[in-house]
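Task 17 of the worksheet. Students: predict the tertiary structure of the chain below and write it out as structure tokens. Keep your answer in the requested format; marks are given for formatting as well as content.
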Amino acid sequence: MGKPKELIGGLSHEILFEALSTCADLADVRQEVILNHDNNRWWPTTIQDWRLRMVIAGWSTRVSYNMINTYQQVVHNVSRIGYDDLCRMSDAELQDLIGSLGLFNARNQYLRSLAKFIEEFVNGTGLLPEIPNDTLIEVFAKKVKGANYKVAQCAALYAKGYHCGIFPVDSGMKDMLGPCLGLHLPQSAIAHEIMRKQVEKMLNVRSCEYYQLAVQTGYGNLAIPKEKTPVWWAHLVLIYFKRLYCNKKNPCQCPLHTNPRIGKYIGSMCDRVAPQSGGYQYVVVEGVDQVGKTTVTEELKKMGYVVIHSPYNPNHADISLHYRTLIDTAPTPAVFDRIFISEVAYGHAIRKNSRLSDSELQNLLAFLADKNCVILYLKESQEVVQHRLLTSDGDHIRILDHLDELILEYDRCMEKAASYMPVYEVSPTTVSKENLLPYILQIVGS
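Model answer:
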């Protein structure tokens, strides 16, 4: 399998909303969500004891769809026994009870460790609903043997109830769907938590909009609480989309990848030959002289971006056409070391005239935004920039004389650009060079 090309990622509200809208409107996804929203086949409401729910949530992992009937029978038998008697069972008795699920040693270890965790942590902390979700998941993942963040998320959600606000992230979401949507996730297990928290944050910010989306896409008859963010609904929509589409490993038939609104942002991590993460195909690095643009572009070059330099050239007959052609013919992915924004900022501040009119600037911003672009606005304090200009090679007298005006013009340009595409302010001096790229990825992905 080829190594996926790494892009700067960032899951926006627009992409998440459109992705949920697209997935929720698929008939096969809707069928599964409706079947599992109010009474989930894997985590049924018939189990009332939250302790037993934690047990079952852990045991539900690594159970295939082909084993659903066997699994449901085990859950039924366990519910008749009850949590306390279950914990008192010998290993041999437990094997007779759950052996059909396979991986008995791992499931047995999980139960024994979970029982100790519940006794020492949960019972000692207080009522389960009063323990914050993040705290419960973090401690659960560390204390319960055989658990990890994925299991901890599931156990916490099932124990607290479907609508407690937890968005469980399984391995397929972490490895395929999340990166396809533009999330930059590490390879380690913490990626489950990173994705969970980012998706939950976005859902909670626009709770009413996502509730209306659920209603509008045909889920109005489900028991979705109006006063809570429909996190459980969103989880089911994406988890069943992942199972029904991502797992087929056919990106050409992916409804997200072929979506006319967001398809250009969506990756193809399910491609067996050349998996591609989603994210920004184009990055513009802008800012005044000596703020670190070259350093940043060289770091992005290591990720696979082709560096395109755009120095000032006074001889272009049609400067707007020049920049449009530069953008239109750029390879993907590419990082622009300056672009028409510098033309405008330096034109107004230094040359007292910009060769681009305001309408031409707006048209170029719209054209660039349509290419799936993000702007990194590198900015340092005026004192830092002055010191670098004074100590660097070259004649920077005109820039030094108009530095305050130049910074102001850049701020104005970035304010306009932000109406068209994401703009992130970056201060390279706040981190070491080796941490610069992770710092940028964190800013854009947060």
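Marker's comment: The first strand starts at residue 282 and ends at 286. The chain has 21 helices and five strands.
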